[in-house]
Amino acid sequence: MTTARLKQYQALRREIEVLNRAMVEIGARGPNRTSDTVSSAAEWPYNIHHVQIDGLDWAGYSRERERIRQLRETARARAEAELAEIEGFIAGIEDSELRQIFRCRYIEGLSWLHVARRMGSDATADGCRMRHDRAIKKIS
Predict the structure, then answer these.
(1) pTM for the whole thing?
(2) Helix (H) or strand (E) holding 62
(3) Using one digit for the tens of pLDDT, what is the confidence trace for 3-14?
(4) What three-state secondary structure class fits 122?
(5) 84-121 per-position pLDDT tens digit
(6) For the chain, which end, N or C, has fewer CB atoms within 10 Å of the first or last residue's CB respectively?
(7) Using CB atoms within 10 A of its CB, is residue 135 exposed (0-12), middle (13-18) or buried (19+)?
(8) Do residues 57 and 35 lie in contact, with contact meaning Cβ atoms separated by under 8 Å?
(9) DSSP 3-state assignment of 41?
(10) Buried b (16+ CB within 10 A) or exposed e, 76-113
């Protein structure tokens, strides 16, 4: 597990929220209005005239909604699998304090200063960061 993958945790959660909102928005928006112009005369002298046809593009709306649903489901499944892997990695850390440091930093998205405050009065931001860095080096 690398720090780059761990840092993706918050972004993955936001991505899932955005994908869920996209599906709600497409459902609320409804189909687009379409219009078509037909022009020609049926008989000689073939004078040009215009006929405007308006309507709702239900077929296009259904295709677009299904396309977004499939994209969302694929991306959501990938993001949820990555989230589960990161959570599993953090849960598998044997040292309780180190596990708390990783959880605060990546799952809760806290700064090193806030991680240190969460760890207690004798912890410093630099100490938490260095402990984290040593653990990552050991894993790599």
Answers:
(1) 0.67
(2) helix 58-91
(3) 888 888 889 888
(4) coil
(5) 999 999 999 999 999 999 999 999 999 999 999 999 88
(6) C
(7) middle
(8) no
(9) coil
(10) beebeebbeebeeebeebeeeebebbbbbbbbeebebe
